[in-house]
C-alpha cells in the first residue's frame, strides 16, 4: 500500500486510528488446514516483526492476538524510526497492512489459553511433532479451537501493575508516563514530579535530568531512616544529586492525583491528538492531594511501576521465568522448551521498548526458520537413506536421530571407494 503524504496527518490522529478496519480474519475458512510451521502469540510489535520475518521466507504462520497492547494508554508512540509521533494503533495497522501482502501467513483475533508440547518420544524423522495451541475466539472457554504448530513464538508482553491511588490508573500514559524516551520530550521544561518509592528516586532523576529542572519527588511515605540507609548503600551520593539539582522530597501520603487540564487538547493552542510529527508539547496539569496538608500542582510525572507477564501461557507450558518474572531465553531467543521462543517485553532482556520488540521478533523469526529448515533437511536425508537402503544400495544404515553428527557424517561422507570419503567418524 502506498501512503499519500496528504493522508498522513489524518492517519495519525487518534480518531482515525480508532476507525481503522481490522485486518484480522477469524473466519473458519482461515483455519481450514490447522497445521502451521509456527504460531505467533501476540500482535504487538514483537509478534508482528516475527510474523514479517517468517512471511518473507514463505513460512506458513498464524498470528493470534488478544488485542491488549501495553502502550495503548499513550497518545503517541515515540523513538521508533520512521514512526516517531504516530499513534500505536496506526503503527500496528501499517505493519499489518504490509504483512498481509504475504500469502503464507494469517492473522486472527483470539486468546491462546494453553499450549501443549509435542510428545517427546515422537521420532521427528517419521512424524512431524506439533504443539497444540488451544485458542478462545470469543473470549469464552467454550469456543476454543485447537491449532497445530511446529514452533511457538511468544510475544505476549507485560502488564503494568498500577497503584489503586485515585487518578493514577485513569491518567496513565497521558501526562503520567513511565519512560522518558516514550513521552518525556512532550513535557520538557515543565514543572515535573517523580512518583515512586525512595529507592527509585536516583534512577528516575537521572533519566529526566536533561528534560526537566523543576522537579519534586513524591515518595509516598517511603522516606524513612531505614530506606535512606539502604539507598546510601545502593546508590551512594544520591542526596548530593538531589541537592545539586535543587530537588525536594515530598514524603506525605498521596490520596489522589487529580487532572486539572488535558494536554491532548489544551496545548498552546494546538490540538495534540492531531499532532504534527514527530513531537508536540502536551500541556497537562495535575493536582496532587495528600492525606493531610495543602495540595501541590505539577504538569507531568514519571512513575515507578512494577509489571508482570500479561499472559501465563508460557509459564503454564513450562517456560522458566527469570529475574522479575521474565521468560528465560538464550541468545537465539529460544526458551528452555525446545521449539518455543520468547520475544519483546516478556523475555529476560530487561529492555522494554518497540525497537527491542521488533529486533527480538526478527531474530526469533530467523532462528525459527533455520531450525525448521534443519529439521526438514534432516528428514529429507533420512527418507533418502531409507529409499536407497530399500533399493539395495550399499549406503550406510539409517541415521538413528536427526542432526546426530555421526549419522550425518555417514550420509555425506560417501562409500569407501568414493573420492569424497574422508575416513570414519571416530578418528
Ligand atoms: C504507556 C506506555 C507508553 C509507551 N510508549 C512507548 C513509546 O513511545 N516507544 C517505545 O518504543 N515503547 C513504548 N512503550 C513500550 C512498548 O509499549 C512495549 O515495549 C512494546 O509494546 C512491547 O511489544 P510486545 O510485542 O512485546 O508487547 P505488546 O505490545 O504488549 O503486545 C503483546 C500482545 O500479546 C497479546 N497477548 C498476550 N497474551 C496473549 C494470549 N494468551 N493470546 C493471544 N494474544 C495474547 C496482547 O493482547 C498484545 O496484543 C510504552 C509503554 C507504555 C506502558
From TrEMBL:
Give the Pfam families listed for this entry.
Answer: Pyr_redox_2 (PF07992)
Residues in FAD/NAD(P)-binding domain copies: 36-196
- Signal peptide feature range: 1-17
Q: What Gene3D superfamilies does its record include?
A: FAD/NAD(P)-binding domain
Q: Which keywords appear in this protein's UniProt record, sorted alphabetically?
A: Flavoprotein, Oxidoreductase, Signal
Q: Which GO terms describe its molecular function?
A: oxidoreductase activity
Q: Does the keyword Electron transport apply?
A: no
| GO biological processes | cellular response to toxic substance
Q: Which InterPro entries match?
A: FAD/NAD-bd_sf, FAD/NAD-binding_dom, Ferredoxin-NADP_redctase_2
Q: What family is it from?
A: Belongs to the class-II pyridine nucleotide-disulfide oxidoreductase family.
Q: Which PANTHER family match?
A: THIOREDOXIN REDUCTASE 1-RELATED-RELATED
Identification of the protein by name: FAD/NAD(P)-binding domain-containing protein
Which organism does this sequence originate in?
Answer: Thyridium curvatum
Amino acid at each position: 500500500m502506498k501512503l499519500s503524504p496528504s493522508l498522513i496527518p489524518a492517519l495519525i490522529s487518534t480518531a482515525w486510528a480508532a476507525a481503522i478496519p481490522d485486518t484480522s480474519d477469524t473466519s473458519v475458512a482461515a483455519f481450514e488446514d490447522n497445521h502451521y510451521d509456527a504460531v505467533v502469540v501476540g500482535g504487538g510489535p514483537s509478534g508482528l516483526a516475527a510474523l514479517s520475518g517468517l512471511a518473507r521466507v514463505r513460512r506458513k504462520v498464524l498470528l493470534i492476538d488478544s488485542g491488549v497492547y501495553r502502550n495503548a494508554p499513550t497518545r503517541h508512540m515515540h523513538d521508533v524510526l520512521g514512526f516517531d509521533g504516530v499513534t500505536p494503533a496506526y503503527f500496528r495497522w501499517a505493519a499489518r497492512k504490509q504483512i498481509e501482502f504475504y500469502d503464507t501467513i494469517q492473522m486472527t483475533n483470539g486468546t491462546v489459553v494453553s499450549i501443549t508440547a509435542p510428545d517427546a518420544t515422537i521420532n521427528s524423522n517419521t512424524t512431524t511433532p506439533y504443539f497444540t495451541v488451544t485458542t478462545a475466539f470469543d473470549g469464552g472457554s467454550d469456543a476454543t479451537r485447537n491449532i497445530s504448530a511446529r514452533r511457538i513464538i511468544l510475544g505476549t508482553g507485560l502488564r503494568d501493575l498500577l497503584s489503586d491511588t485515585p487518578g493514577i490508573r485513569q491518567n496513565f500514559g497521558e501526562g503520567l508516563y513511565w519512560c522518558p524516551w516514550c513521552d518525556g520530550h512532550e513535557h520538557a521544561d515543565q514543572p515535573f514530579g517523580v512518583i515512586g518509592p525512595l529507592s527509585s528516586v536516583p534512577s528516575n532523576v537521572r533519566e529526566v535530568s536533561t528534560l526537566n529542572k523543576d522537579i519534586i519527588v513524591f515518595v509516598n511515605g517511603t522516606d524513612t531512616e531505614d530506606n535512606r540507609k539502604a539507598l546510601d548503600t545502593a546508590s551512594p551520593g544520591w542526596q548530593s544529586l538531589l541537592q545539586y539539582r535543587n530537588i525536594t522530597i515530598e514524603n506525605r501520603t498521596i490520596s489522589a492525583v487529580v487532572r486539572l487540564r488535558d494536554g491532548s487538547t489544551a496545548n498552546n493552542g494546538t490540538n495534540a491528538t492531531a499532532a504534527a510529527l514527530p513531537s508536540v508539547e502536551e500541556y497537562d496539569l495535575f493536582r496532587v492531594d495528600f492525606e493531610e496538608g495543602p495540595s501541590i500542582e505539577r504538569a507531568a510525572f514519571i512513575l515507578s511501576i512494577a509489571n508482570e507477564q500479561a499472559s501465563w501461557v508460557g509459564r503454564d507450558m513450562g517456560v522458566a521465568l527469570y529475574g522479575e518474572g521474565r521468560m528465560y531465553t538464550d541468545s537465539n531467543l529460544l526458551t528452555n522448551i525446545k521449539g518455543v521462543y520468547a520475544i519483546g517485553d516478556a523475555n529476560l532482556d530487561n529492555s522494554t521498548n518497540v525497537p527491542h520488540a521488533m529486533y527480538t521478533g526478527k531474530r526469533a523469526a530467523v532462528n525459527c526458520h533455520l531450525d525448521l529448515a534443519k529439521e526438514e533437511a534432516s528428514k529429507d536425508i533420512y527418507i533418502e537413506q531409507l529409499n536407497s537402503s530399500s533399493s539395495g544400495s550399499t549406503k550406510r544404515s539409517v541415521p538413528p536421530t536427526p542432526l546426530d553428527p555421526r549419522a550425518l557424517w555417514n550420509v555425506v561422507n560417501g562409500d569407501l571407494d568414493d573420492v569424497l570419503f574422508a575416513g570414519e567418524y571416530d578418528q
